Amino acid sequence: MERLKIVLRTAANHGLKINWKKCQFLKKEIDYLGYRIKHNKLSPSPLKLAAVVKYPRLQNPKHIQSFLGLTGYFRKFIKDYALIARPLSEILKKSIPFVIGPQQESAFNMLKKKLTEAPVLGIFNKEAVTEVHTDASIRWVWRHTFTERFR
């Protein structure tokens, strides 16, 4: 309750107006900007996951761009997202003929599967001991952050 008072006081001190109809207080979980936030954990919102699951079969470049936009928003939840999505993004290039083949179907299905496997990220704790592991090549850069809580 004390944190709520601090937030409200800070908003008032800086002249921010609060739309009370849009406010949600003392909730254990909320959906915000396509994410579900629950007890220091972040996951895609069920509405966004439903949109991914129901996404129709890819038929043209616009469908692929839209699907990659939807899944790309949650790329941090999918290990090797760029690698998995590559067959889809490659056929969007003007120099490559637009043909949806087995590789593209596989990438489409894999992205849907990975996103619906209930991915969850922890919210960063600046107080915890943190390690950043990196690796890179000509084609990609890899980075993963570990905090004490997840070792």
Automatic annotation (TrEMBL):
First-level EC class: transferase
Entry's EC annotation: 2.7.7.49
Pfam families per UniProt: RT_RNaseH_2 (PF17919)
Domain Reverse transcriptase/retrotransposon-derived protein RNase H-like: 101-137
Superkingdom of this protein's organism: Eukaryota
GO molecular function annotation: RNA-directed DNA polymerase activity
Protein name, UniProt field: RNA-directed DNA polymerase
Species of provenance: Macrosiphum euphorbiae (potato aphid)
